[in-house]
Write a structure and sequence with these properties.
Length: 517
């Protein structure tokens, strides 16, 4: 951000904050010097060569310990698993400050919206929620309403919040979650709204406190950020450059979860296949990491999200060892057309993707593959869209997340001329979804009559009489059984397949597993 833009920003925010609360303009200027750091998508794009340091000690400032006694916090999470895990960290920090968790916004003294910027409708939901919360804030002026997560990393969003949403007291981003105690101190005791967003990622902070949302399955970050810069995607701007956690820190965290009785862990990163590429002192990738982690006594290990480009043979070799490495790979393809993939800057062709799928299927027979697909990318032709359909048929995915392309400010695709009308995009999405449903039903049908292992997570959402859990291929199974098996892996015979879920009956442990689930 240049000097002129900075001045404009300052003026905008000055107009947006309440002058009556201001002691003097000098204080105000000082406040800006210390707390207001406007995000910049342009700065976020710059990838520096400077080393990322790892900090292993983390303390809540003394004066903030116990500050939340008799107070409650509520965090609403939007977006991906990365955000869900960040919420667990924020819950951990707040709990160490004495705050208690609540599920009710009415009871909360602090409300944080952990936001997602990946598509426009994700952002609209957040603005809708901020609107609803205005009433709460009016009745309870001491309530702190904070917005964090990926939307806070966008300059346009921060400006809109400051200008139009007076009820928001605190804005911080994805790179400074560890500063939550300091930011809350300012929000609780200062007179101004607090905005602190770092455009650039900082160091890796280990040992942040966490309150995990469950005690059966746990998330483990292996890396942060993304350097791929697919032309449609905002994530490299909101999450910064790729930074890998050291293997010893990851392994220690997984061991800790195993000791606590967790049954499943999912290794997390925006592009986990780039794991280790940023180490300059050793050659160590995702395959090496998985090979070490699989030796830990934990029943199930998953990872997400894979990028096809960096998916190497060593990883396939390790995954083929099976055991606690689950036979499901989420492998986003985005499009089946090489031309589209090129404009999306995915850095692989249709043929290269299919070759990777062939190798994976050869090494891991019966593997379940799922994917992400975008339809209606700028200028996508009917033929190019049909290539996506034909690729889907060829790979025979178990399932897919499908999206209509949504332009994101600051990304290269947002500046592309687009000749595809919205109705056409929507119609393509419907056609694709019909195919996704067809394959999901077909794949599920193949499991009918088989015996599968299910990690039981709890009661089914719709019926407390029924238990629900997931197979190794991550398929949801509903069945009757005693509550005592919640948290255990049990054998279930699949009696009936639906499009998205499976029904089954629990069987005795001695009976064999067909393990096709
Ligand atoms: N890091 C992961 C996914 C990140 S976002 C990966 O690379 O696979 C999850 C999915 O959202 C993407 O795979 C993509 O299909 C979709 N997506 C991302 N940006 C989008 C946009 N601008 N419009 C529509 N869908 C988008
Ligand atoms: Fe976005 Fe591409 Fe990075 Fe995935 S790999 S987060 S789609 S830029
Ligand atoms: Fe959304 Fe940020 Fe995840 S944009 S998808 S919450 S990394």
């Amino acid at each position: 951000m240049n000097e002129k833009q900075r001045k404009e920003h300052t003026a905008q925010i000055k107009a947006a904050t309440n002058p009556a609360d201001r002691k003097s303009d000098k204080d105000y200027a000082k406040y800006f010097e210390t707390t207001y750091q406007p995000p910049s998508l342009k700065d976020a794009k710059k990838r520096g060569k400077e080393d990322v340091k790892v900090h292993r000690g983390y303390d809540i400032p003394e004066d903030m310990v116990g500050i939340g006694k008799n107070k409650k916090f509520y965090i609403r999470t939007y977006g991906c698993q990365m955000n869900e895990h960040d919420t667990e960290v924020m819950a951990g920090i707040l709990s160490e400050m004495g705050f208690e968790n609540t599920d009710s916004t009415n009871e909360a003294d602090i409300i944080l919206l952990n936001t997602c910027a990946v598509r426009e409708n994700a952002e609209n939901k957040v603005f809708g929620e901020i609107g609803h919360l205005k009433v709460l804030k009016r009745d309870k002026p001491d309530l702190i309403l904070g917005v964090c997560g990926c939307m806070s990393q966008e300059e346009g969003v921060v400006n809109r919040l400051l200008q139009k949403h007076q009820q928001v007291d605190l804005i911080f981003g994805t790179h400074n979650i560890h500063r939550l105690p300091q930011l809350l101190r300012e929000a609780m005791f200062g007179k101004e709204r607090v905005v602190e967003v770092w455009s650039k990622e900082g160091d890796i902070i280990e040992n942040l406190p966490k309150i995990r949302s469950g005690n059966i399955k746990g998330w483990v970050n292996i890396m942060y950020g993304c350097d791929k810069f697919c032309t449609y995607c905002i994530v490299p701007y909101t999450r910064g450059k790729e930074r890998s956690r050291r293997p010893e820190d990851i392994i220690e965290e997984v061991r800790h979860l195993a000791r606590q009785g967790y049954k499943e862990i999912t290794l997390l990163g925006q592009n986990v296949n780039a794991y280790g590429k940023d180490f300059d002192d050793m050659k160590y990738g995702l395959g090496d990491l998985m090979d070490e982690i699989r030796k830990i006594d934990i029943p199930r290990i998953r990872f997400t999200t894979s990028h096809p480009r960096d998916f190497d043979d060593h990883l396939i070799e390790v995954l083929a060892k099976g055991g606690n490495l689950m036979d499901h790979i989420h492998l986003p393809v985005q499009s089946g057309s090489t031309e589209m993939l090129k404009i999306m800057s995915r850095k692989y062709t249709r043929e290269q993707y299919l070759e990777l799928v062939r190798k994976i299927k050869a090494a891991i027979p019966n593997v379940a593959l799922t994917t992400d697909i975008i339809v209606g990318f700028p200028n996508e032709t009917e033929e190019q869209f049909e290539e996506t359909l034909s690729l889907y048929r060829e790979v025979e995915y178990d399932s897919a997340y499908t999206f209509v392309y949504s332009p994101r400010e600051g990304t290269p695709a947002a500046d592309m001329v687009d000749n595809v009308p919205l109705e056409v995009k929507k119609e393509r999405l419907q056609r694709l979804n019909a195919l996704v449903n067809e394959f999901s039903a077909k794949k599920n049908k193949q499991i009918e009559g088989q015996v599968v292992e299910v990690l039981v997570e709890g009661e089914s959402k719709n019926n407390p009489e029924i238990l629900a859990g997931y197979t190794s291929k991550n398929k949801l199974v509903n069945f009757r059984g005693p509550k005592s098996v919640i948290g255990e892996i049990v054998k279930v015979r699949i009696t009936s397949a639906k499009t998205w879920t499976l029904d089954g009956e629990m069987i005795k442990d001695e009976e064999g597993v067909t393990n096709n689930g």
